[in-house]
Amino acid sequence: MKKLLAILLVLVMVLSLGACATKPNGDNTTTTASDAAVTEKPVIRLATTTSVNDSGLLSYLLPVFEKASGYKVEVASAGTGIAIGYAKSGDADLLLVHSKAQEEQFIADGYASTERLSFMYNYFVIVGPADDPAEVADEETAADAFEDIAEDKVPFASRGDNSGTHNKETGIWEAAEIDPSKESWYNSVGSGMGDTLTKANELKAYALTDKATFLSMKDSLSNLSIIKAEAEDMKNTYSLIGVNPKAKAFEGKDVKINTEGAQALIDWLTGEEAAKLIEEYGKEEYGEQLFFLLNK
User: Fold this and answer.
1) How high is the pLDDT of residue 39?
2) SS3 state of residue 231
3) What's the predicted TM-score (pTM) here?
4) 231 to each of 79, 201, 234, 256, 291, how far by Cα in Å?
5) What's the DSSP call for residue 41?
6) Using one digit for the tens of pLDDT, what is the confidence trace for 54-108?
7) How far lies 282's CA from each of 118, 134, 217, 237, 277, in Å?
8) From CA 267, how far away is CA 259, in angstroms rounded?
9) Cα-based distances in Å from 72 to 41, 127, 262
10) Crossing angle of the two packed helices 272-280 and 259-269, in degrees rounded to 10
């Protein structure tokens, strides 16, 4: 009996030692649970405009990328000006935005690790009351439509937030040679696309918006319809730009840029799998494709 107990005691000790032992990794070191956590891929911080986020496109695309790559993507969604500000402060690894002039300035200032990679587009549309009080529907361009709105002094809601959409709207007013900023019918919301559409709906006002965001919200916008779509001066191009960890502005600062992760996301978004997903997005829910690839 004593011999049996002794044997059992030895077995318990052996099993305990085996459970506590760590697995060699081939270089005279060991791998522990805490080491495994350290080797996980770092989060990719994507700063983007509200239009691609509010439209639902990113929540549709990113889970597929995350599952395939092992990365997690943290999205900061704001107007393009603010999104670029995140990158300039070292709080983003990658930009997905739609304001050419601001993007080119970002690159000129040395903040970019890649070229401006324009890869998809959709269209801005002019929305407003279904009865179209300024009669803009038949105008050839957005600039002509804006002239009609100003002439008839019909309410207009602007984002007013230095976003890509706001910059596009400002460019259209300039093309029409009109400064609406001090007019009583012009309402500067100073917020994102969703808030601006909500305000336009309350005022029964016209507004410039990307089509995808409008369609994603249309059930709550009973006073608004798409009045004018797909004019040549309403094309909306989206670009990807990686953030440069060696930017002069980052010197002496504790800035860590996930360059490898940013490039992995760029490669995936411009690859075949993402292309197929982008081409299908919107067809089932809205009955039409919402984003288009530039190389198609």
Assistant:
1) 53
2) coil
3) 0.77
4) 23, 23, 5, 42, 16
5) P
6) 888 999 999 999 999 999 999 999 888 999 999 999 999 999 999 899 999 999 9
7) 21, 30, 13, 18, 10
8) 12
9) 8, 36, 11
10) 60
